[in-house]
Amino acid sequence: MTDANECWIYTGTITSQGYGQIGVEGKVRQAYKVAYELFIGEVPPGLELDHLCHTRDLKCISNSDCRHRRCVNPWHLEPVTQRENTRRSNNPSAVNARKTHCIHGHEFSPENTYVKPNGQRQCRQCGRDASARYFASTGRARDRRARQRKQGDQS
What we know:
Blueprint: E1 21-24, E2 27-30, H1 31-39, E3 48-51, H2 52-56, E4 77-80, H3 82-88, H4 92-97, E5 113-115, E6 121-123, H5 124-138, H6 140-154
Antiparallel strand pairs: 1-2, 3-4, 5-6
């Protein structure tokens, strides 16, 4: 009997992405999905299977060498949305999305976070600091302050 806590590593054909594949009724299918269906049941519509053994292994990177992609233990699989599956992964996008502070220690709060059109987050405080450094280095800040003083004198 195989231990339900251990990964069941598929030893058949492996795809270029590192997942096991198996022929079932004339169709090539992902081995972990077949195992899940045989032991647990159908994957609910709109959901995909997340390898929990991979999610728990924080040292594992998401690439074709990941041993968890070959795991077919159905108790290591959980139906989740695509968004949740991506969020749980260790790819760079997911790692960055889990960050709560920028590299300079500022919190990614709603007030301090600008979301670019491509979905990337930017720390507003770091943006203000970079802008201030730029204007200080070009002398444009002095020019702007001088114009503001001059406009104030004219009123």
